[in-house]
Design brief:
The chain is α/β, with parallel strands linked by helices. It is 38% helix and 16% strand. It is built from 13 helices and 17 strands. The radius of gyration is 21 Å and the shape is globular. The structure holds pyridoxal-5'-phosphate. Pyridoxal-5'-phosphate binds next to α3 and α4.
């Protein structure tokens, strides 16, 4: 089945002439970092998401670290999250000295199951960090009820979900803080980049201090003067990146529309293939469709996921796997005692999943090639 066609990646940025021109303008200006474009970008994203405040930082990971830190997560504190996520969601808890407490996911959305969350709450639990996997918002009505009852913060990992909606509300409005990522495969890109959204003024002020070394200016003591109560980090995003983000944000409607068109095309083409399960979107959400992970019904196939993954790659599809459950990573096993079998739904999903290419710049011809290739490979290996 070897084929030397151009690889269609699983995700890709869409940078156009206008984006490039905007970046060049900033490069020619006086400010290339921490100038006017940072606040402009923050305000534009906050407006788009319908939240009061936004703080731009250097990555989604930095956004998580900042959010957990200003939420007061410290040594011994527990944060409940999903094992089906990128490592940063849990790693950033560890940066703060806390423990990532995983709970199993729902079979259809692959988001944390609120019923499981409640079972894992202890005296040390400080926050819930729901992850909107693939862009599908979590069950926030239930999660909020639990958080309120136990006085916990909700720090939403919305890295996949800029532009997604939960019951008509844009992601970012629901949690105490929500984080975004602007990595190239995400809804919009700044190269590397991230943001924290919040309606809480206290968090907003603390986040700005945290991203800039922990310095607090005291102009009454002199124009140069600042104090550091708690050391922060250099997590600043540059004007060069923020102007790119602003230019990208102007196209987000078009980007999400195109993602949804491709998803509709895939759903239609794959709906009668009995050997695969398609990703689902519940009726009360609108997903920004960051990724399109299918699941193989291995009992109906003569090959395992690894074999089918490799065949799809040989055929020129840059397929991926999202994600290896975090509790199975050596660090999390050793540090917190997690083991195989702890989260059966997450583990079963992992054994069977493959992410197909999906990005707004994808042409119909490329989408058709993905469909044709998946059909060919599945047909070849079906029992
Ligand atoms: C769910 C999730 N959270 C956090 C991150 C971290 O974002 P970044 O790569 O911008 O640091 C990612 C990045 O892939 C992600 O997918």
């Amino acid at each position: 089945m070897l084929n030397k066609k151009k690889i269609i990646p699983y995700g890709h940025q869409w940078i156009d002439k206008k984006d490039i021109e905007e970046v060049i303008k900033v490069l020619r200006s006086d400010w290339i970092t921490q100038g006017p474009k940072v606040e402009e970008f923050e305000k534009a994203v906050a407006k788009y998401c319908g939240v009061k405040y936004a703080v731009a930082v250097s990555s989604g990971t930095a956004a998580l670290h900042s959010a957990y830190s200003v939420a007061g997560i410290g040594p011994g504190d527990e944060v409940i999250t999903s094992p089906i996520t990128f490592a940063a969601t849990a790693n950033a808890v560890v940066y703060c000295g806390g423990k990532a407490v995983f709970v199993d996911v729902q079979e259809d959305t692959l988001n944390i199951d609120p019923k499981e969350v409640e079972k894992k709450i202890t005296k040390k639990t400080k926050a819930i960090a729901p992850v909107d996997f693939g862009g599908h918002p979590c069950d926030y009505d239930e999660i909020r009820k639990i958080a309120r009852k136990h006085k916990l913060l909700i720090i939403e990992d919305a890295a996949h979900a800029l532009g997604s909606e939960y019951k008509g509300k844009k992601v970012g409005q629901i949690a105490d803080m929500a984080i975004l990522s602007f990595h190239p495969v995400k809804a919009i890109t700044t190269g590397e980049g991230g943001m924290i959204l919040t309606n809480n003024e206290d968090f907003y002020e603390k986040l700005k201090i945290f991203r800039s070394h922990g310095t607090v200016k005291k102009p009454e003591k002199g124009g140069w003067y600042y104090e550091i109560e708690n050391p922060g980090y250099n997590y600043r995003l540059t004007d060069i990146q923020c102007v790119l983000g602003l230019s990208q944000l102007r196209k987000i409607k078009k980007f999400i529309k195109r993602r949804r068109e491709i998803v509709a095309k895939y759903n239609k083409a794959f709906k009668n293939i009995k050997e695969i399960i398609l990703p689902r979107e519940r009726g009360y959400v609108k997903s920004a469709w960051h990724i399109y992970p299918i699941q193989l019904k291995l009992e109906k196939l003569k090959a395992n996921r690894k074999k089918i993954f490799e065949e799809l790659r040989k055929e020129g599809l840059g397929v991926q796997v999202h994600y290896i459950p975090l509790h199975l990573q050596p660090f999390y096993k050793k540090k917190f005692g997690y083991k195989k079998g702890d989260f059966p739904i997450a583990e079963r999903y992992y054994q069977r999943t493959i992410t197909l290419p999906l990005f707004p710049k994808m042409t119909d011809k490329e989408a058709d090639r993905v469909i044709k290739t998946v059909k060919k490979v599945i047909n070849f290996y079906k029992k």
